[in-house]
Amino acid sequence: MIIFAPSKMSIKTMLIKEIVVRRQESFENAIEKWANQKGITYTVFDGSISLTETADAVVLFHEDYNISKENEGVKDLFLNNGKFAHTIDVNGTLNASVSSFVFWLENHKPKSLLFIGDDNLIRNEKFVKYLKLLLDRI
């Protein structure tokens, strides 16, 4: 007779359930491709309701704190409306940056995230490495 006991290991739930983007340009297309690898819902903002009603939090990707005024404004919009924001410097220490984001996700438990970043990020090798490492952690 074979008896199956419940595993003591907990089943990890996916930390990112939905990603929202504002448009479909190079950065957003890279995020869509990445999200599809993990089966994460991907939505393009259609303007029917405000950004802060569409997403629970904003995640701002940047290189060495070079952040456009537009992206800084979106981050401030979320913070000023009582929403959460997280910034990711893709040129920072890779493992520490991914761990910090995973910890942030575990603590805030957002259902939907607005991902923003400049199109030039997709040419940065560290951005690609960051996404690959994050894929394994979420």
Description:
The protein is an alpha/beta fold and 138 residues long. The chain has one domain: Rossmann fold, CATH 3.40.50.450. The protein contains five helices and five strands. The longest helix is centred in the C-terminal third of the chain and has 15 residues, at 94-108. It is globular and about 35 Å long. Residues 1-11 have low confidence and may be disordered.
Biggest β-sheet strands, sense, barrel: 5 strands, parallel
CATH topology descriptor:
Rossmann fold
**Strand line-up in the sheet with most strands:** 2-1-5-3-4
Number of helices: 5
Shape: globular
CATH architecture: 3-Layer(aba) Sandwich
Quote the beta fraction.
Answer: 15-25%
| Rg | 16 Å
Oligomer: single chain
Task: Compute the average pLDDT.
Answer: 90
| Tally of discrete structural domains | 1
CATH C-level name: Alpha Beta
| Unreliable runs | 1-11
How far is the N terminus from the C terminus? 37 Å
